[in-house]
Amino acid sequence: MTLTVEALSVRFGSTPILRDVGGLRAQPGELTALIGPNGAGKSTLLRSIAGIERYSGQVSLDETLLDSFDIAERARHVYYLPQDSGTRAALSVFEAVLLARRTTHVSDRRHDLQRVRHTLQSLELEAYAERDLGQLSGGQRQRVAIAQAVVREPRVLMLDEPTSALDLHHQLQVLEWLVAMARERNMIVVIAIHDLSLAARFSRHMWLMGNGGRVQAVGTPREVLTEARLREVYAIHAHVDWPADEPPRVTPLSATRSLGGTSSWQNF
Ligand SMILES: Nc1ncnc2c1ncn2[C@@H]1O[C@H](COP(=O)(O)OP(=O)(O)OP(=O)(O)O)[C@@H](O)[C@H]1O
Ligand SMILES: [Mg+2]
């Protein structure tokens, strides 16, 4: 099973947002990182794959165009967790995650309860199981939203900046767990993420979007993350290191010019 995107374009009104996005592949069992500057179109791309945004082009799972599914079927196969997600509904953490599970699985109640408990443990949330959602910190709420997405067990799970509110421990812990889960359940997992060191460390393949809603590069982290490309796409000088005995490191050194313009911030 491969997720494929070809010739995908999206317009908001008369403004093109994604232009002929293609050559994207994501495989089950591994994490694919979607990276690129603010406004490049990462969220729009993930929303399009989920069928939330209208697009022209082809999004397919193996030979099946996702367009051929009805909305409910597509939502069962492909789940998108938005950035800034996290509900404050009047539910406990356990109830909220169980409710998410029951939207896609209705057969075995005991198994569902077990799966919810196990997921809360994996995300270090078991101590908050009985707590109301409205009484959580931002990072705890983000982890609950990840738990809700995961227990649905879609074939394609897309998480939009899932670690943006997390402390360093939980960034590592959540990403390690997502990698293990993708492998164990043979799931396609695509995450949009701004931290390039973490993206390089945990993803097997990367999709790099640039300004103008175009794909700038796809490939392994080593192929995609070159210093020249970071200068071009992110307008930064950066060191990219691939130490043999440590995780990869992308160290941003300075901003070279305003992104999307020619003026330098130093002129202000
Ligand atoms: N509803 C909308 N109407 C018009 N333009 C929009 C709308 N939503 C997003 N855009 C524009 O589309 C472009 C892509 O936005 P998108 O949210 O996909 O970027 P992104 O890569 O996810 O950025 P970020 O890293 O900030 O999350 C941006 O220029 C944004 O201003
Ligand atoms: Mg976004």
UniProtKB/TrEMBL annotation:
Show the PROSITE patterns listed in the entry.
ABC_TRANSPORTER_1, ABC_TRANSPORTER_2
> What are the start and end residues of every segment in region (Disordered)?
247-268
- Asked if Transmembrane helix is a keyword of the record, the answer is no
Alphabetized InterPro entries for the sequence: AAA+_ATPase (IPR003593), ABC_transporter-like_ATP-bd (IPR003439), ABC_transporter-like_CS (IPR017871), P-loop_NTPase (IPR027417)
Stretches of Polar residues bias are at: 253-268
Q: Which residues form the signal peptide?
A: none
Q: One Pfam match, by short name?
A: ABC_tran
Keyword ATP-binding present in the record's keywords: the answer is: yes
Coiled-coil segments on the chain, per record: none
Protein's UniProt name: ABC transporter ATP-binding protein
The top of its lineage is: Bacteria, Pseudomonadati, Pseudomonadota, Gammaproteobacteria, Oceanospirillales
